[in-house]
């Protein structure tokens, strides 16, 4: 070390030191927003379910007759049958796919992974439409379902397509945290492949399997997009809620069914929560990544399996795209862009698409800002940390609340004339707010994970250097978290672009939406236009993903040089 | 051993930082119960103790990163106990260094600096020269070795010339060799700048080599405050003796002032001269104080011991001895390589050992169990 003594630099005593107190009201505002966007609408729908508007009496007086009706009982049974069957089909498929991606040395993993995530880009109505073209009365493969595709099996296949990537992502995560040492130890102790699977692999992924099963089950039971298009006479609970509210304007009955839908969702949420806590306890910091060696037979089988599963997903997407481009199925197979001219069809047409883009962009912008702002304040800024637990609880809530229930809650809460926020009803703003609330959980978890990877002493160091907390946020926290910020924005955009469930109760003719218009066009018998709109949505989602990927690449190159020191 | 205390310490005895009655609870766990400590200007103080003893909590309370339930912190006579961290004027280095990964070394060091760009640049250059790494200004933290990162964190903490430097286990993430090297460098730097420094560590060797004064803590209380020599040679409690270095413990009964019965033998220890006969005491002796004699000469504190194990510690050998005369006492003795050769010591051999009476320290009565 050199021997010079340090001269004292000029110190500025004027730096604002105790700026942290500003963080508390800011975090409080974020928390209040979540209360308004989530808690109050849910309370509203619960209130609606147990309040008889005719007599003004609170209680179960109107719930009981609805529950006792034989049609409802049948719908409950149908919903459970569909959800269980779909789970039983999707889980092994998703597990096989995830295992091939994480535990084999097969080629083209990136391609297969991208392929498997395709369904996320489409509204749940798309598989329904594709199935009509494949197996419907005039379908190419009609012979496979001689009794018709409309009904139970149609719903199950459509839901399998829709839920596959959700299960896959969870299982890939569960399978990729393998501790290579455990397998080495098992091999050294003489355990064979089968024994290793049951003693090492299965225990380490069992919570992931539970999680995936719960997610699939909940998604199926609360989705009405697929049953709407392909369900025929087979009536399920989610569709019934939609019909009661939209078709018959029977709000109390819709509310009761909505609350019913909340029950399995809350149950699976609780199970999943427990499973995830156990899963975390399983991981040790000393785990060694698994080294994959080439095994020709296994890798070939994995490749074959992924080709078949990925091919099936691609077939469904391709059918929808083809349906959008073919003149008149099955009589005139010439190609045309006519179906993309929505001027002659009901349901909103081109404006709906523009509205959807606008809604998704606004949701991505404001949703990301709110999610990251709230997570950052409560994770990182001293005084606001006391709000961390309430925020986290609220942020986890949307996972347990089906979009359908949330949308109904918004109707009951914001359409109440006494509500000072009544003016939002019927605007684009409420659609954006509802979408932010609907997709809050995943975004929040991504943000929190990214923030927690930062050294927790950054803020302490900044305080000791008398730098206000927001400067550290701007110079360090945000740049380091930039990839996660982009991830959250992209997730918000794509999820909002494809959703039908919550917004279907909230749109007006002025704010018609693309995904909703798919449903309305299909309802009006204009299946080709519906397919065209669904294709547009997929194209928009895919473009957004590509744009975000490009943006990420550019930013990483320009501002994130520190990540790859060379 | 002789130590030069920095001039400021001897000339300015008034406390710079004084902590009075600091208390802190986390739920049912008492982290600190009544800490009193004064630190002089320019002093290097180490808070030493096992994990969970409250030393890090105490440092975080001084930094204002943690609140205290009760107590007072005064600096230059001014109460700073309730001030936010940014108003307390200190620099801090964490175990993780907490270097901002997306900023260059120069940007990291300049993070707390204000004023004109040229002034900042000059200051950064000065600090880089000071830590002996003049050529790394444009690098990112991920491009530096652990030792380099540690020094950059130190430079960043010193950039604003704070009146107080806080170090939270600053060396524990480093390899042994780098750690030893940096000990000396940090100590030299601290002397040179005369900045009052408080370092938290669980490594007794680190505390002994670096500190002007060591504060040994356990279970939220201070066990002893003293110079490294005092802590090592005159531990105030059995805990301090055990925590700071290796010890031999002899249990004995006082026969007459300064005379004790240990097993079948008699040991004289002036340290026990004020105890009543019949009292049970524990005697403490460091392994390097055990004397191995070339020839057996009967004397009050000698006995024949059998070598059970010879362990190479590097520059020393540590013998594990068994002494039948003192009730089969297990005794550790450190000897040099030369001694080992000269005395031709081997396993199972019998050796005369002597316990120098002046080195024996005495710890109160053993509770009758």
3D architecture notes:
The complex is a heterodimer of chains A (566) and B (369). Chain A has 566 residues and is mainly alpha-helical. Chain A has two domains: 20-46 and 344-561, MetI-like (MetI-like fold, Orthogonal Bundle), CATH 1.10.3720.10; 69-281 and 312-336, Orthogonal Bundle (MetI-like fold). In chain A, 69% of the residues lie in helices and 2% in strands. Chain A is built from 21 helices and four strands. Chain A has helices at 23-49, 63-68, 70-103, 109-116, 125-135, 152-176, 180-188, 193-222, 225-230, 237-247, 251-282, 296-325, 349-380, 388-400, 403-414, 428-438, 440-452, 458-464, 469-498, 514-523, 527-559; strands at residues 51-52, 57-58, 326-328, 332-335. Chain A has a two-stranded antiparallel sheet. In chain A, strand 1 (51-52) and strand 2 (57-58) form a beta hairpin. Mean pLDDT of chain A is 87; it is low at 1-17. Chain B has 369 residues and is α+β, with helices and mostly antiparallel strands. Chain B folds into two domains: 7-90 and 162-243, Rossmann fold (3-Layer(aba) Sandwich); 248-365, OB fold (Dihydrolipoamide Acetyltransferase, E2P), CATH 2.40.50. Chain B has ten helices and 20 strands. Chain B has helices spanning 7-11, 55-63, 105-109, 117-130, 146-158, 176-193, 204-210, 228-233, 238-243, 337-342, and strands at residues 15-26, 29-40, 44-48, 70-75, 78-79, 91-93, 164-168, 196-201, 213-218, 221-226, 248-256, 259-262, 265-268, 280-285, 291-292, 302-312, 316-323, 329-336, 350-354, 361-365. In chain B, strand 12 (259-262) and strand 13 (265-268) form a beta hairpin. In chain B, helix 4 crosses helix 5 (146-158). Chain B is elongated, with a radius of gyration of 25 Å. In chain B, 40% of the residues are buried. Residues 6-11 of chain B have low confidence and may be disordered.
């Amino acid at each position: 070390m050199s021997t010079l003594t340090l001269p004292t630099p000029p110190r500025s005593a004027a730096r604002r030191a105790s700026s942290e107190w500003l963080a508390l009201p800011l975090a409080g505002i974020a928390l209040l927003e979540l209360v308004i966007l989530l808690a109050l609408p849910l309370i509203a729908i619960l209130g609606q379910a147990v309040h008889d508007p005719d007599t003004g009496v609170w209680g179960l007086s109107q719930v009981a007759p609805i529950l006792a009706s034989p049609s409802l009982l049948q719908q409950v049974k149908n919903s459970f049958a569909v959800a269980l069957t779909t789970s039983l089909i999707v889980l092994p498929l998703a597990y096989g796919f995830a295992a091939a991606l994480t535990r084999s040395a097969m080629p083209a993993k990136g391609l297969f992974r991208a392929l498997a995530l395709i369904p996320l880009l489409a509204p749940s109505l798309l598989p329904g439409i594709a199935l009509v073209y494949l197996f419907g009365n005039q379908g190419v493969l009609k012979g496979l379902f001689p009794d018709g595709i409309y009904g139970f099996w149609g719903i199950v296949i459509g839901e399998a397509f829709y839920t596959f990537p959700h299960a896959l992502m969870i299982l890939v995560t569960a399978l990729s945290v393998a501790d290579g040492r455990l397998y080495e130890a098992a091999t050294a102790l003489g355990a064979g492949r089968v024994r290793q699977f049951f003693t090492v692999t299965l225990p380490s992924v069992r919570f992931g399997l539970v999680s995936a099963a719960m997610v699939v089950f909940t998604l199926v039971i609360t989705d009405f997009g697929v049953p709407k298009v392909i369900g025929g006479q087979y009536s399920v609970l989610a569709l019934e809620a939609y019909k009661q509210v939209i078709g018959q304007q029977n709000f109390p009955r819709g509310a009761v069914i909505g609350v019913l839908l909340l029950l399995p969702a809350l149950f699976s949420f609780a199970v999943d929560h427990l499973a995830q806590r156990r899963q975390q306890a399983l991981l040790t910091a000393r785990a060694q990544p698994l080294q994959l060696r080439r095994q020709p037979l296994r890798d070939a089988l994995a490749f074959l399996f992924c080709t078949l599963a990925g091919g099936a997903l691609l077939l469904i997407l391709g059918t929808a795209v083809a349906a959008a481009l073919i003149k008149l199925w099955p009589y005139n197979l010439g190609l045309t862009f006519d179906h993309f001219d929505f001027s002659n069809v009901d349901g909103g047409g081109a404006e709906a698409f523009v509205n959807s883009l606008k809604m998704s962009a606004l949701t991505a912008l404001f949703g990301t800002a709110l999610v990251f702002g709230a997570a950052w304040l409560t994770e990182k800024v001293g005084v606001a940390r006391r709000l961390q637990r309430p925020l986290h609880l609220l942020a986890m809530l949307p996972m347990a609340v089906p979009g359908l229930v949330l949308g109904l809650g918004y109707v009951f809460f914001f359409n109440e004339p006494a509500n000072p926020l009544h003016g939002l009803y019927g605007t684009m703003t409420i659609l954006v707010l509802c979408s932010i609330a609907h997709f809050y959980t995943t975004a929040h978890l991504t943000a929190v994970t990214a923030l927690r990877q930062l050294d927790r002493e950054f803020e302490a160091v900044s305080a000791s250097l008398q730098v206000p907390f927001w400067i550290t946020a701007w110079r360090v926290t945000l740049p380091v978290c930039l990839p996660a910020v982009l991830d959250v924005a992209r997730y918000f955009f794509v999820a909002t672009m494809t959703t039908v469930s919550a917004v279907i109760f909230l749109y007006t003719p002025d704010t018609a939406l693309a995904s909703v218009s798919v449903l309305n066009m299909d309802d009006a018998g204009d299946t080709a236009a519906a397919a065209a709109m669904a294709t547009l949505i997929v194209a928009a989602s895919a473009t957004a993903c590509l744009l975000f990927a490009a943006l990420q690449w550019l930013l990483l190159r320009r501002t994130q040089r520190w990540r790859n020191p060379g | 051993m002789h130590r030069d205390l920095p001039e400021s310490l001897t000339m300015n005895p008034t406390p710079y930082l004084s902590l009075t009655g600091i208390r802190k609870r986390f739920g049912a766990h008492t982290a600190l119960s009544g800490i009193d400590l004064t630190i002089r200007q320019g002093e290097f103080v180490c808070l030493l103790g096992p994990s969970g003893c409250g030393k890090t909590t105490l440092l975080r309370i001084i930094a204002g990163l943690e609140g205290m339930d009760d107590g007072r912190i005064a600096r230059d006579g001014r109460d700073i106990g309730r001030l936010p961290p940014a108003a307390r004027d200190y620099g801090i280095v964490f175990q993780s260094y907490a270097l901002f990964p997306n900023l260059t070394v120069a940007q990291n060091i300049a993070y707390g600096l204000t004023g004109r760009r040229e002034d900042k640049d000059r200051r950064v250059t000065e600090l880089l020269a000071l830590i002996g790494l003049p050529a790394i200004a444009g690098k990112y933290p991920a491009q530096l070795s652990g030792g380099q990162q540690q020094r950059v964190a130190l430079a960043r903490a010193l950039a604003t010339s704070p009146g107080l430097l806080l170090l939270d286990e600053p060396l524990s993430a480093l390899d042994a060799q780098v750690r030893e090297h940096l000990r000396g460098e940090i100590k030299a730097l601290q002397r040179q700048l005369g900045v009052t420094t408080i370092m938290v560590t669980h490594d007794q060797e680190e505390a002994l080599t670096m500190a002007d004064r060591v504060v040994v803590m356990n279970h939220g209380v201070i066990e002893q405050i003293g110079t490294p020599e005092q802590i090592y040679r005159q531990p105030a409690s059995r805990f301090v003796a055990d925590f700071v270095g290796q010890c031999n413990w002899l249990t004995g009964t006082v026969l007459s002032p300064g005379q004790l019965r240990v097993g079948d033998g008699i040991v004289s220890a002036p340290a026990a001269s004020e105890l009543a006969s019949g009292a049970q005491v524990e005697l403490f002796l460091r392994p390097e104080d055990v004397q191995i004699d070339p020839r057996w000469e009967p004397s009050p504190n000698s006995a024949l011991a059998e070598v059970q194990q010879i362990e190479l510690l590097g520059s020393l050998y540590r013998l594990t001895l068994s002494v039948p005369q003192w009730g089969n006492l297990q005794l550790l003795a450190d000897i040099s390589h030369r001694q080992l050769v000269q005395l031709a010591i081997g396993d199972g051999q019998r050796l005369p050992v002597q316990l120098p009476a002046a080195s024996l320290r005495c710890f109160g009565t053993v509770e009758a169990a």
